[in-house]
Amino acid sequence: MFYNIFDTVPERPVDNTDNLYFVLHGCSLIHRVVWPKQETFGDVYTTYMSYIKRHYGDEVTVVFDGYTESNVKTKTIERQRRRIKRTSREIIFNESTVLLDPQRQFLSNLANKEFFISQTRWPLGERRHMHVCSNR
């Protein structure tokens, strides 16, 4: 209901990025980009790189800001409630592992999500960067 009062800004590829530098929220990006079905995690990383390049160009930093589940806040409680609905088994993987679970289900397991971020060796390129921050 609350979000219905706002208009969404349509996504569109950036034409001229000469004077722009983007800082992207990594966790939001994880959910925004649709993963290819039954492909490897290497293919998933490639999909992210293509998305970032197409929508934001070369001047990009992706930031994964850490958060703890121990904080008792509304957002934490809501995350826990959502995870109960659809849980995934914990998956240890590398770039050649084929993803069999749906993206949403895979990411509902906090251990999977954290491992995915920690194993991310995204080939961001010379002027693209990734930072993983943690407040733990």
Features:
5 helices, globular, 12% strand, three-stranded parallel sheet, 136 residues, alpha/beta, 38% helix
Beginning-to-end CA distance, first to last residue? 34 Å
Mean pLDDT score: 75
Structural class: alpha/beta
- Radius of gyration equals 16 Å
Helix content: 25-40%
Unreliable stretches, pLDDT < 50, 5 or more residues?
none
The secondary-structure element order is EHHEHHHE
Q: What is the strand tally?
A: 3
| Lateral strand order in the biggest sheet | 1-2-3
How much of the sequence lies in strands comes to 5-15%
Largest sheet: 3 strands, parallel
Number of helices: 5
Overall geometry comes to globular
Q: How does this model look, in words?
A:
With 136 residues, the protein is of the alpha/beta class. The chain has a domain of 87 residues. Helices cover 38% and strands 12% of the residues. It is built from 5 helices and 3 strands. It has a 3-stranded parallel β-sheet with strand order 1-2-3. The protein starts with 21 loop residues before the first strand and ends with a strand.
List the helices and strands and how they pair.
Layout: E1 22-25, H1 26-32, H2 41-56, E2 60-65, H3 74-85, H4 103-108, H5 110-119, E3 128-133
Parallel strand pairs: 1-2, 2-3
Question: Briefly, what is this?
Answer:
This protein is an alpha/beta fold.
